[in-house]
């Protein structure tokens, strides 16, 4: 039996309703996923939620993270400030799968204003089950080196 993925999800106020629908569907489909906020469509900034998810993924508490805001841009930028994070911004299945296979992405970011829930769920699931192909180890190692060097 395959081990269940440990997943964490977060959003800002712009994606609260979007996240709620995605979370409900993922749980209905058997995913174990922890929601770290925000908890309202009226307030909740993207940067603190992105940091919370990124810190947890970088620490190995979760296998992967999902971050949602209006466009996904702010979440991706904020998450990528955390060493060890390779947050990817995607709006479709193919780039999502390639971001995992070729770039070893560990947090998927997307936007509530950019996608509908069924398409987002298809993209998330494809991304979750894509495997890093190891064909870009040099690029991934260089990213890690740049993090260590602080540039």
Automatic annotation (TrEMBL):
Keywords: Isomerase. GO terms for molecular function: isomerase activity. Pfam families: LacAB_rpiB. InterPro entries: RpiB_LacA_LacB, RpiB_LacA_LacB_sf, SPI_LacAB/RpiB. It comes from the Bacteria. Coiled coil: none annotated. NCBIfam families: PRK05571.1, rpiB_lacA_lacB. Belongs to the LacAB/RpiB family. This is RpiB/LacA/LacB family sugar-phosphate isomerase. It comes from Aequitasia blattaphilus.
């Amino acid at each position: 039996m395959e081990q269940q993925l440990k997943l964490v999800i977060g959003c800002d106020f712009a994606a609260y309703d979007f996240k709620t629908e995605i979370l409900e569907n993922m749980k209905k489909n058997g995913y174990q996923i922890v929601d770290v906020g925000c908890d309202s469509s009226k307030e909740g900034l993207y940067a603190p939620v992105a940091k919370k998810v990124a810190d947890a993924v970088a620490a190995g508490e979760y296998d992967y993270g999902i971050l949602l805001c209006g466009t996904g841009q702010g979440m991706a930028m904020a998450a990528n400030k955390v060493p060890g994070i390779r947050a990817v911004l995607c709006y479709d299945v193919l780039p999502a799968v390639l971001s995992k296979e070729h770039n070893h992405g560990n947090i998927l970011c997307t936007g509530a204003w950019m996608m509908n829930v069924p398409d987002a769920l298809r993209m998330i699931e494809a991304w979750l089950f894509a495997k890093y192909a190891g064909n870009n180890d040099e690029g991934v190692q260089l990213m890690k080196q740049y993090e260590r060097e602080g540039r």
